[in-house]
Amino acid sequence: MKTLDFYPTTEIDELAWPEENYDLTIDSPALLFFTDFQNNKPLVVESTSSVLNVKELMQKEHVRLKFVIDDKKHFIGVVSADDLIERKIVQKVSEGLERAEIVVAELMTAKKNLKALDWQDISTATISDVIRALKNDGERHCLVIDRENHKIRGIFSASDISRRLRLNIDIQEKTSFSKVFTATL
């Protein structure tokens, strides 16, 4: 076992900064804002996980979206903080499920209901192109697929983009008949 020593910081004046210090603007390449799963491990949760546990975990981790995988580690959908709101949990309880027995698969958005941008398209896009796409679609997150290799390549997050640009990006969720209908149930 190695013993680690502490040292005084009184003689230290500088902070380490990343080599690539970009002055980011809305005209910056979209790839500078992209969470690439070839470089960053995706945040995943198993489909059989308790929604109560996942909700608590997401709050502790300060994340609003996780990828849902099955027992073979295949991507089957996403679960967002909006999917885990109390009203949706209570709705499942009213359908006869015990609160503690509700699993992520019952509240997630299945991959067949998701849309994504293409890796080739975003590789030449600016972040303003991505912001416009997010706003037009009313989405806070956007998956990016590599259609050639049949993989989810990564994700854009409106909150990450907003934070890095120091710009308020107001995403208005689109209202659809199905959302209005399920909200009244």
From TrEMBL:
Residues 38-95, 108-171 form the CBS domain. The keyword Repeat applies. Keywords: CBS domain, Repeat. It comes from the Bacteria. InterPro entries: CBS_dom, CBS_dom_sf, CBS_domain-containing. This is CBS domain protein. It comes from Marinomonas rhizomae.
